[in-house]
Design a protein that fits this description.
By secondary structure, the protein is an all-alpha fold. 62% of the residues lie in helices and 0% in strands. The radius of gyration is 17 Å and the shape is globular.
Amino acid sequence: MLELNQIAELRAQQSAAFTRELLADVLNEPAQSSLDASAGRLSLDLALLLYALESDRTEIRQCFRQAALHLSRDLAARQPPDPATHRSPCEAEMHINVIASFGTQDDRGRIAGLQPWQYRNPPYPEHAALARYLAALLPYVSGAPLDHAALDAVAAACETDNATKEDRLFLLPSVRGLAAVEARDARAWNLALAQRVAAHQDEARAGDVRLLPQGFICLGGMMLAKLGRDKGMACRATSDYLPLFLLDDEAPG
């Protein structure tokens, strides 16, 4: 097993087996949109666990693609929330990273027109910069032009004295990397990727995801890598948290 965070191999094996059983049960239910959230999250967790356990690459890719399908359906189907409904833009960003990295064109198109209330509720002020970033990212990954002014505003917010740690360490490299992808600036893109992966590694080793499957792969880095490689740029970053080989097999659609 790859040593990526503090999850022990036996626990990872048990979690993978349990997740696989739960996912099979969900997928065997009659098709309904209410199951997409569960199917998407379980498929994502299984993909991450299988990667850490160095399992079959084809199955890992299939799990990621299945996650992208169901997560995109879940996001697109969300209805206006009542005040008690919690929707985390941090979780939404992770899911969008998966859709952009492993989804089909249909999956990416499904999320192009998401409204802020579909991924952020309540609108806590500490998530304002992330929400603006997502509003610029969603149309772009679906093929629309990048809103440079909106992205510049997010970058400026991340550099203020009252920016959160998450904005400075995670969001700012993502913003810079996205701008570099659009500009086809390979040097800036590689630098942003390295910063994003380094921040993720610190969190995986001793931070909030040290005991979670989400620590196994830097999904934000994977999305930036996918977008940049699609523009013909060569990624120089090398890290177990950035398994570029999972992007090598052409996705369907």
